[in-house]
Design brief:
Elements lengths: L1 H28 L6 H7 L2 H8 L18 E5 L5 E4 L3 E2 L7 E2 L7 E6 L6 E6 L5 E6 L10 E4 L4 E5 L4
Antiparallel strand pairs: 1-2, 1-9, 3-4, 4-8, 5-6, 6-7, 7-8
Bound molecules: zinc ion.
The site of zinc ion (ZN) has 8 residues, from loops.
Catalytic activity: L-methionyl-[protein] + [thioredoxin]-disulfide + H2O = L-methionyl-(R)-S-oxide-[protein] + [thioredoxin]-dithiol
Protein name: peptide-methionine (R)-S-oxide reductase
Pfam family, one: SelR
């Protein structure tokens, strides 16, 4: 019995360690790397608090909630193309919501800010915090809900041809 508990403890220790290492490796993978003071100088206060400090904007506060015209939503920090209007839906939560992202545009992490684990969505190019992903999205498409801070995005309308 004792041996088993030691084994379990060892396994827990190993898995915690590799998770921490993984996070660090991910952080070094971002192709856009800037110091916090550089980001602070480039972003608005609100953008900085959300993208770099993982804060959440007030629901129903983003003008991007109402956007329905075709176009692309890019990272407000680095311009990486993240979402398209065709994948946006009204989730009723007050945050811009999408059922999928542009392929290979995101990075994932996890946080326990509210005491339970949530999957955090980050910009794949600069590591900026965007929001979280949940499994209660539209069932007829992906079933996923990307719940995104509007302040982390900029909308670029598609040019009319
Ligand atoms: Zn970015």
């Amino acid at each position: 019995m004792k041996k088993i508990s030691i084994l379990i403890l060892a396994l827990v220790f190993i898995s915690c360690k590799s998770e921490a290492q993984q996070d660090k490796e991910n952080a070094e993978e971002y192709k856009i790397q800037k110091t916090e003071s550089k980001w602070k100088a480039e972003l608005t206060n609100q953008e900085f608090r959300i993208l770099r400090k993982a804060e959440t904007e007030r629901p129903f506060s983003s003008p991007l909630n109402d956007i329905k015209q075709p176009g692309v939503f890019v990272c407000a920090a680095c311009g990486n193309e993240l979402y398209e209007t065709e994948h946006k839906f009204d989730s009723g939560t007050g945050w811009p919501s999408f059922d999928r992202a542009v392929e290979n545009s995101l990075a994932f992490s996890s946080d326990r800010k509210l005491g339970y684990q949530r999957s955090e969505l980050l910009c794949g190019d600069c590591g900026g915090h965007l929001g979280h992903i949940f499994d209660d999205g539209p069932k007829e498409t992906t079933g996923k809900r990307h719940c995104i801070n509007g302040a982390a995005l900029e909308f670029i309308p598609k040019e009319k041809s």
